[in-house]
Amino acid sequence: MLFPYTNEEGNELNESMWVKQIGEYYEIDNIPFYVKNYACGDLVSGEMRQGELIVEELIQESGNSTIQIIFYDKGIIEKTRASLKELKCASEISNIPALIAFNVPKDVDYFGVVEPFLQSGFKADLWDYQEACLAHT
User: Fold this and answer.
1) How confident is the model at residue 137 (pLDDT cuts 50, 70, 90)?
2) Contact criterion met (CB below 8 Å) for 114 and 107
3) Quick check: pTM over 0.85?
4) Segments of the chain assigned E as strands
5) Strand 19-22, strand 91-93: pairing
6) Are 36 and 132 a contacting pair, CB within 8 Å?
7) How crowded is the C-beta side of 107, counted as CA atoms within 13 Å?
8) Band of the pLDDT at 39, cuts 50, 70, 90?
9) 22/19 Cα distance (integer angstroms)
10) CB atoms near residue 49 (< 10 Å)
11) 44 pairs with which residues across the strands?
12) What is the band of 8 on the pLDDT scale with cuts at 50, 70, 90?
């Protein structure tokens, strides 16, 4: 499924994501790297346009959050991914070697555990990150 977005330069692009059909809707089956406001497990509607399945709208949030990290030192990516895995957060590496995205499951304490971890790396000038889809409250 294609998810349209506008990059920082103002270009209109599409991010392709795996989805599983659930009745008339689709469940996102991977972690978004570029789009905002979507997370793994979210339920969306889609429409076929010119042979491509395009997202239409968010139907139901999964409760998961999507965080995207850009690393200043690519040498720490695998160690960071291992740390995220210990926090029960799955991650994926994008086509940009210094960019990863990770999923924070709804039952993981984002504000008490994950955010302090992110802040420590940010304050140590190891990475920058964005909360692309923050469903945790």
Assistant:
1) confident
2) no
3) yes
4) 2-6, 12-16, 19-22, 25-28, 43-49, 52-60, 65-71, 91-93, 99-104, 127-133
5) unpaired
6) yes
7) 1
8) very high
9) 9
10) 10
11) 26, 58
12) confident
